Amino acid sequence: MKQTLRKLFIIIFLLFPAIFGCQDTARNSARSDRSDSLVNMIEKRISEKKQIEAYRKRALPPDFEKKVRNYYPVIRKYAKRYGFDWRLIVVQILKESHFKERARSRVGAMGLMQIMPSTAREIRREMDIEYIANNPRENIAAGIYHLYKQLKYFPDTDRDNRLKLALAAYNCGAARIFDAQDIARALELNPQTWESVKTCLPKLTREYWKLHLEVWELGVPNYGYFYGYKETIAYVDDIIDGYNILKKMF
Question: Which of 36, 96, 145, 215 is the least buried, fewest Cβ under 10 Å from its Cβ?
């Protein structure tokens, strides 16, 4: 019996450093993992802060926070009514007018949301509002409603791509997007994704006339040639990029 106990004691004595050494190693490994995780989190926060500051300098007017506070109630109201994140609308206003209430484009688009006169007339009838050109709050309401209408043109795509296609349609008109989708189908691309439409918008110019002969019976895009594709592509991508940054700010 004594021999057995002595052997058992020797075995435990020999294994003791290995057992507790493994536990120390595990604890050290856990501490190292937590330390790495904390460092990664801090680096991510610093990177996000730099990204926000760069965006603030590049894209935001000096009185940005004041403008947002001023128009927040109407932006929030109509964004919620039509299913948008209010921060997306803020970025769209930045892109359209830089929050300049009296902004006018070279083609006649007006106000914070840069609504064309023909579109304003249509929206007046549908929303029963009168002063889209001169009342910034009505201009915002009309613009959000108009963006909502663009969504309806793309019922067969997922939420993310639907929003991007609607933004593109807001900028250049849904007809241009339809033509780009026709080309996407001809090239065996998915016409319901922004990436495919983005690839095909530049192909609506005259230099692609051979492709047009394969897509349309008359050999030209249904809604004519389109040369403003760079603006439309930048419009969508800039708004989505800005929206992702603004979600970190608010």
Answer: 36
